[in-house]
Amino acid sequence: MSDATNLIHLGVDSERYGGIVNTPVYRASTVLFPNTGAMAERYEALSRGEDGVMTYARKGTPASFALCDTLSRLEGGYRARLFPSGAAACAAGILAYVGAGDHVLITDSAYAPTRHLVQEVLPRYGISADFYDPLLGQDISKLFKANTRLVYCESPGSHSFELQDIPAIAAVAHSHGALVACDNTWATGLYFKSFTKGVDISIHSATKYITGHSDVSMGVVIANETAWPALYDYATHLGQTSGGDDVYLAQRGLKTMATRMQAQARHSMQIAEWLLSQKQVSAVIHPAHPSHPQHPLWQRDFTGSAGLFAFAF
């Protein structure tokens, strides 16, 4: 089925809920077990890495498992975890994978809270970082150090909307034994299949396009099978999760995401063309517009466009 169709059907298990189409709201904390044997069996299943195991709400509910599964399958990842905000997800996409003595390479066009984390928080934990030109591509190889563990990308970049050659960067990073994280909030898993481009960890501010109605704060980190254990350990032990009502609203938002994003892309292009006709505007910086300097890269790697772009006076 198409992605638009999958967004309607993934995460739905109507037979489990007596024919009800949508997964109900789960407001939960404690989980009861009929006996200690049943409790032990469930925790053993969790230790084996089984998905969807209910032990305590912080580790997931049927609703959050369904949402994570939908987002993972949409983008081609292995599993996902929810976070209380996009900034929390960005932090997890770094801190779950590095420790004292490690080095991170991060795009110079990163989201401002991520940049602050790298500059102000990582040094307190003995983690060093360097910002790289987002246009480097495979030339990023010259910036690697013996202790570089992670490359953090964002394509297009915040505010300035540079596109990165993610497959080229990922190939270099993997040759050095480093993981690749990518903030994929702009395109979502609908328009940029990050895991087919070599990404190991995909990060989203679900507050934006995924939930879509400006009434939820949520972040999502999706990992491939290699990167999943560290993400799960980080999220579980730092108590990162999302509440039942927010999970329900995010599930509802997904049903219309394809339609919403198509409309936003169409309208943003109309606005971009209008701006170009204004004498006060010198440039439109929209990855999907032919005037964008990396537009061929957008055509190669993306299947659609978000509504966010910039322009210069």
At a glance:
With 313 residues, the protein is α/β, with parallel strands linked by helices. Helix content is 37%, strand content 14%.
Describe this structure in words.
The model has no long low-confidence stretch (mean pLDDT 95). This protein has 11 helices and 9 strands. The strands form 2 sheets. A 7-stranded mixed β-sheet has the order 1-7-6-5-4-2-3, with helices on both faces. With 313 residues, it is of the alpha/beta class. The protein has helices spanning 3-9, 36-47, 62-75, 86-95, 112-121, 166-175, 188-191, 228-237, 244-255, 257-276, 295-301; strands at 79-83, 103-107, 128-132, 148-154, 179-183, 201-205, 219-223, 283-285, 310-312. Strand 5, helix 7 (188-191) and strand 6 form a beta-alpha-beta unit.
Q: Determine the strand fraction and express it as a percent band.
A: 5-15%
Structural class: alpha/beta
| Mean pLDDT score | 95
Task: Please state the CA-atom Rg, rounded to the nearest Å.
Answer: 20 Å
Number of helices: 11
Give the low-confidence spans.
Answer: none
Strands side by side in the biggest sheet: 1-7-6-5-4-2-3
Element-level helix/strand string: HHHEHEHEEHEHEEHHHEHE
Shape: globular
Biggest sheet: strands, sense, closure?
A: 7 strands, mixed
Number of strands: 9
As a percent range, the share of helical residues equals 25-40%
Distance between the termini: 43 Å
